[in-house]
Write a sequence for this structure.
């Protein structure tokens, strides 16, 4: 593509490659679920994720050794990773990092709506869970946990500038977390781009409303950054 | 009533009668859950719904033959239907069809909040589920599934013009769907009128915000249609 | 504190003391879950709540006598209360009582997002539930239940004027309810102050939107009350 691109394309390589992404998150100094290289080490429950799985397809939850032996065969021709399954509630945090102001913003939050796993709790008998994302619903985070949510975002931005290149991660990104009963975040994944959950907030979110006196979607925030860069003659800081 | 009525009253007959409604939905060419005329054919789980049940009262989930024999006795003096219980997540899509523009709009979406079925997942022991609707919460749909959501609405509008009368279904209606892990919609029911889930969107929704540059509730959308019909001298197209 | 305080500090004593709070709610004539003074009387399931528990920490769900004997030992050095566990869905109603207009307003509603109890339904095996609040999500209530929601608020305001002092409960407060399948509210707790769930509604809620023609958060509603009191020279009615 010869068209200029908002953001840093090198970051996408780190996002796409599960090994590189895991390295990035771990080196950022944020909590991540343990990964098992050897299935003998697995402490149950675990989740098997095939590489290149998208939208939650290709995930499998396993609660004991016997079940693991059976399910792992279904993954045999694919690359996969085995992670400890963190028991807690999911939260997706939508950030925006501005290279112009050098400030990080939390623009909104959501939780994903997954089929059939978000239906298990409505059925009084056991079925095999699946994690296909079909929607998003809005949430706000307990106030006392906001500083940590903010710091996690800052840590991955900072590490990206050291690990990827000087420009690092810019613009919108999302940390996908699980929160455990001791109020600890586990970061499951990073999306280094605008995420579907922001569709909830076309006219702003409780967080964007605190930062801006006008309806601020993530799309508009990107447009604003480009406009500001043009004004300040700094397009090179935000385009790739 | 001698007062003019926004909408088409004949549609309400088709909505109210479960047999006619089922015929309308099936003939529209959209996915619906299988219904069992003979209980011997039932593939479990199934759900028994008494005719005239409203707000989710009078539904019963059944997971095996033995359970069915017991529960069906409770329905003996009422008319009822036995449907295959689709395992997936519920989504309610709020449409508006304008006879003036001949265009269908998606104004908002919700999921119902049902007691006690939305509590089962918060309890580590089994209880008998019930489906009484007590509220609604907001959602957005995965973008790649929006075209199908839109087409389903178009299909029931088109079929209503063939099956009911020339005017067919107009104004607000809602398709109540279940989405399965293969990202397939099953339409459980149609409400041919304004639904409670639109109460979430008094000042607009992410979908209405994309269509209108002002806060657009379903109520306001109806008022707008009436105003436009007056201006264009086409009240006969929207009143009954 | 010599600074004037918006609200009535005496109310906080009644909120903080579980015995006094229980007395207030029960005498208000609203439904509350049964409390067991003698563990022999407990009808399962029950929930044990330690005094001073906040944000849902220190709650324990118990489903049988054996389990109760084990768990109660963990509470032995703390004061605690044993309540019947009401099976239904939670709803938190945010009220505002204005001493100036003598009117009660419903400003918004939410449900809490709790870890790990809101994850149980996503896991096909049993784990011990915990109730630590980590967020809030928006909801609207079924319309036919709004009059009762409103009356419950009026009842606790009225009783506070008889039980606490003449000024009684003023400004923002929240009733934490469980709704059962017979559409009955059980009030679990009262928060006599602004609650975290209002963070969802920085730019208004469906309920506030019906009352005000501008975005009305609970914070702004308090500011408005103070401004109006200054104008009407009635600051003594709202400050303590």
């Amino acid at each position: 593509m010869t068209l200029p691109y908002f953001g840093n394309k090198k970051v996408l390589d780190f996002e796409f490659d599960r090994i590189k992404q895991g390295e990035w998150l771990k080196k950022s100094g944020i909590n991540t679920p343990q990964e098992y290289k050897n299935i003998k080490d697995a402490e149950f429950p675990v989740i098997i994720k095939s590489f290149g799985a998208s939208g939650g397809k290709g995930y499998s939850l396993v609660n004991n050794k016997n079940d693991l032996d059976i399910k792992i065969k279904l993954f045999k021709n694919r690359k996969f990773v085995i992670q400890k399954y963190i028991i807690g509630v999911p939260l997706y945090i939508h950030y925006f990092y501005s290279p112009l102001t050098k400030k990080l913003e939390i623009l909104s939050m959501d939780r994903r709506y997954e089929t059939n796993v978000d239906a298990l709790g409505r059925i009084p008998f056991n079925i095999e869970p699946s994690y296909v994302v079909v929607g998003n619903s809005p949430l706000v985070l307990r106030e006392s946990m906001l500083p940590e949510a903010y710091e996690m975002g800052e840590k991955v931005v900072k590490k990206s500038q050291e690990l990827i290149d000087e420009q690092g991660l810019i613009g919108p990104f999302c940390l996908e977390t699980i929160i455990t009963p001791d109020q600890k975040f586990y970061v499951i994944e990073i999306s280094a781009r605008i995420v579907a959950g922001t569709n909830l907030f076309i006219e702003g979110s409780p967080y964007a409303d605190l930062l801006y006196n006008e309806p601020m979607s993530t799309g508009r925030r990107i447009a604003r950054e480009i406009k500001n860069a043009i004004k300040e003659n700094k397009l090179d800081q935000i385009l790739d």
Summary: The helical segments of chain C are 9-16, 18-27, 65-74, 146-163, 206-211, 218-231. Chain C has six helices and ten strands.
